Amino acid sequence: MTAMPKVFGHRGAPVALPENTLEGFQYAIDTGADGLELDLLLTRDGIPVVTHNPRLSGDTTRNSAGEWLQSEGPAISALTLEELRQFDVGGIRPGSDCARKTPHQAVLPNCRIPTLTEFLLLMKDNSTEVELLVELKHSPTASDQVSADTFVQIVADELRRHGMVEQSYLHAFNWQILSAAARSYPQLRRSHLSLNRSTHTDGTLFPGSPWLDGLDPEFAALPELLSQSGAAIWSPYFRDLDRESLMHAQEQGLKVMTWTVNDKDLLRAELQLGVDGIITDDPKLALALRDDVSAAQGHTPTLEDQLQ
């Protein structure tokens, strides 16, 4: 019998604690998550920091006086690390869309955006080793950013310096990043994110897409192309995946990890579908449901399960 899907905390565990914070990542580990997904951007002085949006969000950021930003804040790439440290990201503005989506998220006082180094030190301090989906936020069309090769070099050198290469995957929507990694750091496993334009206006999968680094596949042919490129993981939006596509990808030797699944019924359906991993804002719920599904299926734990 195959192993049950692994559960990855998406930016930690945003249902409980602010996203992409050290406290949120630790919470996800403590709940039993098999892995973590984190986002990286570079500051003006070239420091990789763990944050998702290219600009500071008014919904989740307060200035040094404790006041919520009135609108979208400065770009991460326009701030030095010292300047970025002036902002507090340990809460959500009351009444905002973010607050409505995560009404039970706790507040973390005096919380700063962590560096990749701080995150990796936290991982080294944990007795439990988890897998890492390290997402490099990089656009194929933006001009105000370093090259894909430079970004990969900075991150890969940091992972190597902390001995985290073996438990990490480079994870990206911009497949130029992953091609750069394949050229310069072939020992780093690669995870290809995708979002079909037919299901989302911001999708990356469409004819002539700049996100695919020259690949122009029909959706059905995507698993073969990724397998041939040496990809380890295909990470599609969960609504883009059906059982046929899943089985086809797994037959090509790919692990399939879907994102971002939070609803109880959708999580249960995804667990029953047979994906290799699920990326979720609520790892505690996903793990409880995995236990339920496993018991209902009469699942006998495999060695892989026991090592998770």
TrEMBL record:
PROSITE patterns: GP_PDE, PIPLC_X_DOMAIN. InterPro entries: GP_PDE_dom, PLC-like_Pdiesterase_TIM-brl. GO terms for biological process: lipid metabolic process. Residues 5-290 form the GP-PDE domain. GO terms for molecular function: phosphoric diester hydrolase activity. It holds the Pfam family GDPD. This is Glycerophosphodiester phosphodiesterase. The lineage of its organism: Bacteria, Pseudomonadati, Pseudomonadota, Alphaproteobacteria, Rhodobacterales.
